[in-house]
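Quick one - first record:
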Amino acid sequence: MTTFIRTRQPLRRMRQAGFGLIELMVALAISLFVLGAVLSIYLNMKNTFNTQGQLTDLQDSQRLVLTMMTTTIQSAGYFVNPRTDTQSAALPAATVTGADGSTSVFAAGQVIVGSGNGSGRAAASDAVTVRYQTANNDGLMNCQGATNTSGATTIYSNRFAVNASNELTCTVGTGSPVTLAGNVDKMSILYGVDTDGDVNNAIDTYLPASAITDAGLWANVYTAQVKLVFLDTTASKPGAPVTMPQPLVQTINLMNRR
């Protein structure tokens, strides 16, 4: 009987694989490059999101301002009962002084008055005040969005102006100004005027408030062309304001003057 003896072969030691110093440094450099790229993308997306948010807020402010100013200025000269009243009787002469010291002087029947020559900025911007009569619960709003619930006929005086903080404000009667929108660099207003007083009340020129006051033509005003210049909130820096490239312009008819 033949016996086979298996000879045990020595086991080969497996060589352990790993990273060398150079490989580790290369991997670290690649990781830092990828991390930097991801961080840059994140920051760009964040800045874009913030810019879009600021532009959206600005557009919302513009829509609010246009809506409120148009609705209010259009109502100038309205009075409750034209069958029994005249405009002069319904809207008698008055001097309206707000809590901030601003004053608007109206002759009997006068429905709009303004100040400025179109060249001022911020608190030196143009200002405009309109007035109209409202009946109890008739739903006619003032420039702060309130309606007449006093139980009696009331005259609303509404003043639009820009303050030193670049806020477009609205003052009702003798009250305090309420901010409608921020970041307003300036407001300038031209008034459509019938200078020759023809029977058709045809507008023949547009003048600033200072010229209309000098000529005594407030009774001949039929439209108001409002121009608002807003600040670019994405580009402005403290001490270095930047305005939007295009102003917001709206021509508003005084519906109750026709």
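second record:
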Amino acid sequence: MKVNTDSLILGSWAMLRADVKHAPRILDIGTGSGILALMMAQKAESQLVDIEFRIDAIEIDKDAAAQAVVNFKKSKWAEQLHIHSCDLADFKPAYLYDTIISNPPYFDTPAKVSNAYNKQSHNRSVARQTSTLSPDELFNASSALLIESGQMYCVYPASMEADIIKTAAGHGLLLEAMLYVKHTSDKDPYLCAFRFNKEMRNANDGHADCTAYVDRQHFTAKVANENALIIRDREGNYTNEYKALCQPFYLKF
């Protein structure tokens, strides 16, 4: 999987933590060709003047990881970017992260084989389908890899919104912000970008009961529907808001 609109939006919308006192550490889970890691490096360079940063990127597919290595070496942040070709479950860093970002696989494996899925390559299947990384696995690992109050960014289909918020909360990741993404103004959102924050552990070294939080936060998110990004106008042109968001990373704009 190369550069796609979902990653471009997520990387443009994500923000670096402003309250980190140490050298920031960022993790990109499922980096593919490396786009999100590279976008975060560009942001770090512009926002963290004279502050060192480190970005690790995990990729299970060896060919994609090799492509990311090439892209990292050709960038101006080659020393700050580090690729790890492994399964997320096998990733055991010596430190925790301030920020995690991921454009995860989010299509369910089909109940029965169709021509479209039958012709799909194994690599594309790994990149797109949840059989390789479910939301529960992603949030469980992210919670374990984040510092307290660390932030986690990801995207999922709008149809999964409630389940994603609930699953994340079950791992102590509470919704801080959300962006609905629409192809056009007359279409329903097709995508949600999420920012979660890792809550502090309680005295029993566990996470608090999140049921009431999930219900309240989901309602609040639904009401705040003005937080929507529309990609194209009625004439099929990119909207000003989309261009403004993505301009730092898109030479066409």
